[in-house]
C-alpha cells in the first residue's frame, strides 16, 4: 500500500472539514503531466446481477485482484477523464461531470458491464475531489485530473463477462499535456478503430494499440498521430487521444460521430460555444434530437430557435485528407489537451503548416472554454458543478 502524500486530512469518508484554502506541499510552478500520488481514492463494487451500492473514499494505494480477473485476461474495462478547477476565490469547480457519467453508462452496456448511476458517478467525483481538495492547483497553475475506472475485477477463465466489477477513481494534479503547437503525422497503415468495434467508447483496449504508431512518430519528432478511417483510408478520424477540428474560410468542421470516433465532451462543448460566437452549426441527427427535446421543454425562445436553426458554418461531416491539407487552421480538443492548436501536419512526406496564435479561432474558443471551467467567465449553460 502506497503511503499518502502531501497534507494529511482525516482518514474517514467524512472529509468536509478539509480546508479549501490550503494546498499540498508541492511546487505548483513545475506541475506537468505525470504521476503524482495524491492522498485518497474512491472504490465501489458490484457483484454479478447486482447494482452498484455505497462506495467509500479510502487512502490511495495499490489494489489487489485475482490473476483470473476479467480486466487482466480479456481487457473488460472502461476509463473516463475529467478535471477539477480552482476558482480565484479558492472554490473548486467540476466541468460537466454528468456527461462523463452518461458516456460511461453507454460504454458499460457495450462491454456487458454494470455501471454506476449518473448520480452515483457525480457524487463519487465530488467525494474524491473533496478528499483531495488541497491537490487542486491554484488558478493558472493547472488542474486536478480525475480518472474513473470501471473494470471486471471478478475471476473468469473462459471468455465471458466477469462476476464482479470495481468502480475506482483517483486524481492527479496536472499541467499542460502539450507545450506549444502540435506537429502531427497522418498514419495511413495502422488504425485506431474499425466499424462495429469500440472506437466510440472509452474502452481500455482502445489505447494500447496506438502506442506503436505514437512511439514511432515521437521518435521522428512529431507530437502525435492522426488516424484515418480503416475502410477507405481517405478520411480523418481522431488523434490518438483527442478529437480534431479544421477551419477553412471561417467554416469550422469536425469528423462526424459514426461509430469509430469518441464523442468528446470538450468537442461537444466547443460546438455549443461556437454558436454563441456566431459560428453556425449544420444539423446532425444528434443536434436535431437536442433541439426537439429543448423545444418540447420550452427551453428556447423564438430568437434562440432561429439562431439554432441557421446551421451552416460548423460542420460535422466526413473530412477527406485533402480538406485537411487545405485548411487555414487545425486544432485538437479533449479533456487532457483542452484546445491545442496544430502547427503542422505531415502526410506521405508532405508537410503543411497552419495558422496559430492570438487571432485564431482555436484561441478564441480556448479563452471562453477555460474561462467557464475556472469561473472567470459566467457559466450561462449550467455546465459547472461546485465541490462543496
In short:
The chain is of the alpha+beta class.
What does this structure look like?
The structure is a single chain. The chain is an alpha+beta fold. The protein has 2 domains: 147 residues, D-amino Acid Aminotransferase, Chain A, domain 1, CATH 3.30.470.10; 160 residues, D-amino Acid Aminotransferase, Chain A, domain 2 (Alpha-Beta Barrel). It contains 9 helices and 17 strands. The strands form 2 sheets. Strands 8, 9, 10, 11, 12, 13, 14, 15 and 16 form a 9-stranded mixed beta sheet that branches. Strands 1, 2, 3, 4, 5, 6, 7 and 17 form an 8-stranded antiparallel beta sheet that branches. The longest helix has 14 residues. It is globular. It starts with 39 loop residues before the first strand and ends with a strand. The N terminus is likely disordered.
- Unreliable residue runs: 1-20, 283-312
Strand content: 25-35%
Largest sheet: 9 strands, mixed
Number of domains: 2
CATH superfamily of the largest domain: D-amino Acid Aminotransferase, subunit A, domain 2
Task: Decide which structural class fits the backbone.
Answer: alpha+beta
Quantity of strands, as a count: 17
Number of helices: 9
CATH class annotation of the largest domain: Alpha Beta
N-to-C CA distance:
29 Å
Name its key features:
D-amino Acid Aminotransferase, Chain A, domain 1, D-amino Acid Aminotransferase, Chain A, domain 2, 2 domains, nine-stranded mixed beta sheet, eight-stranded antiparallel beta sheet, 388 residues, 26% strand
